Amino acid sequence: MGLKFPNPVGLAAGFDKDARLFNELEAFGFGFIEIGTLTPRPQEGNPKPRLFRLPDDKSLINRMGFNNEGVEAAIERLRKKKTRVLIGGNIGKNKVTPNHEAVEDYVYCYNALLPYVDYFVVNVSSPNTPNLRELQDKEPLTALLNTLQDRKRQAGASQPILLKIAPDLTTSQLDDIIDIVKETGIDGVIATNTTIDRAGLSTPAETVEQIGAGGLSGASVRSKSTEVIRYLHTKSAGAFPIIGVGGISTARDAIEKLEAGATLVQVYTGFIYEGPAMVKKINKGILRWKKAHDRG
């Protein structure tokens, strides 16, 4: 994508939503850090409690709802950046913005963040903003991405634009994603966001039911995410870079994503359960795998 990453392990969006911690987080060894999801105007997000641990599944359920202080507040902190770590800007729409006006929110965030981030991620796949996932449909998504690509050309910008997709898409929807990437010329895909599927959990069903709505992340989504990556990579014949995210806790999990066709990986829930040392362990494991792969 025209960027040089110091290592392939990044921090997924949602952890440093408001760009408060990227200077400190780099010290844990992340090759890149994705801030956001940011929206044009501040919003509180959904009522608390809205984040739940499922320890038996090494997973989380969240229904945060794009809680953030707004893009301008994040920019004030990005202006004081002290590290060289690559920053991704994950952008979305405000909850009160109707879908037919959503493009304006994405363009606003794009314009505001342009001088401060190294790549952009268009988030239309969170399950926690009402009707947001409808923007993944072919027609509105193509229009949104074409608009952002036009803005990129007008600005003479070089920052790649990526699309973050849900793990719950059907194969025909994934085929549409491949077509859309080709048609719009965006730079890549992040696969995947959280899932609304609850199948196969060890946590008692009544506990899961009490928690209620939200996106499931962590070990429970690992194989689902990997299959999406494999499908996109195989069906497109490797036509675009994929950042793999979903259920990565170990080097083996990360390598599974790379073998499926990902170029880079991101962590979130695994980082919460395993702690900061995980990043270095995964990088060391990938290095060993790469050396053996190169020799082989």
UniProtKB/TrEMBL annotation:
Q: What is the role of the protein in this entry?
A: Catalyzes the conversion of dihydroorotate to orotate with quinone as electron acceptor.
Task: Indicate what this protein is called per its UniProt record.
Answer: Dihydroorotate dehydrogenase (quinone)
CC cofactor:
FMN
Gene symbol here is pyrD
**Protein localization:** Membrane
* Domain Dihydroorotate dehydrogenase catalytic residue range list: 1-287
Pfam families to which the protein is assigned, alphabetical: DHO_dh
Q: EC?
A: 1.3.5.2
Broadest EC class?
Answer: oxidoreductase
- Report the InterPro entries cross-referenced here: Aldolase_TIM, DHO_dehydrogenase, Dihydroorotate_DH_1_2, Dihydroorotate_DH_2, Dihydroorotate_DH_cat, Dihydroorotate_DH_CS
Give the source species: Roseivirga thermotolerans
User: What keywords are annotated for this sequence in UniProt?
Assistant: Flavoprotein, FMN, Membrane, Oxidoreductase, Pyrimidine biosynthesis
Which PROSITE patterns does the entry link to?
Answer: DHODEHASE_1 (PS00911), DHODEHASE_2 (PS00912)
Reactions accelerated catalytically: (S)-dihydroorotate + a quinone = orotate + a quinol
Q: Which CDD domains match?
A: DHOD_2_like (cd04738)
The record's annotation in Gene3D superfamilies points to:
Aldolase class I
Query: Which pathway is recorded for this entry?
Result: Pyrimidine metabolism; UMP biosynthesis via de novo pathway; orotate from (S)-dihydroorotate (quinone route): step 1/1
Q: According to its UniProt record, which protein family does this protein belong to?
A: Belongs to the dihydroorotate dehydrogenase family. Type 2 subfamily.
